[in-house]
């Protein structure tokens, strides 16, 4: 689970919530840098046994969640219309 581009605060929180949801099969403390690109993540995916990427990005119209199968699988693009973070759902 990583992002492409700069995410606003609520989407950053959604990204962390999705990482917590996917535990223990995701890296909760993954550090992303501006200079990282998709190739960098693909290069480490094979040795680490990563089979899918969840990529969260913000475009002009709405946020987009992409689910991609590595290394050359299909990609599912989903526009996020409504979203709730865990802190608003759980009491």
From TrEMBL:
Gene Ontology MF term list: rRNA binding
Pfam family, one: Brix
Start and end residues of each Brix domain: 1-91
BP-aspect Gene Ontology terms: ribosomal large subunit assembly; rRNA processing
InterPro entries, sorted: Brix, PPAN-like
CC per GO annotation: preribosome, large subunit precursor
The protein's name in its UniProt record: Brix domain-containing protein
């Amino acid at each position: 689970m990583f992002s492409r581009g700069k995410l606003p605060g609520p989407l950053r929180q959604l990204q962390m919530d999705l990482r917590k949801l996917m535990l223990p099969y995701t890296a909760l403390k993954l550090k992303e840098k501006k200079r990282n690109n998709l190739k960098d993540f693909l290069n480490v995916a094979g040795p680490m046994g990563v089979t899918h990427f969840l990529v969260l990005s913000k475009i002009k119209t709405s946020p987009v969640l992409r689910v991609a199968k590595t290394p050359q699988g299909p990609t599912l693009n989903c526009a996020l219309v409504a979203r709730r973070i865990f802190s608003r759902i759980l009491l």
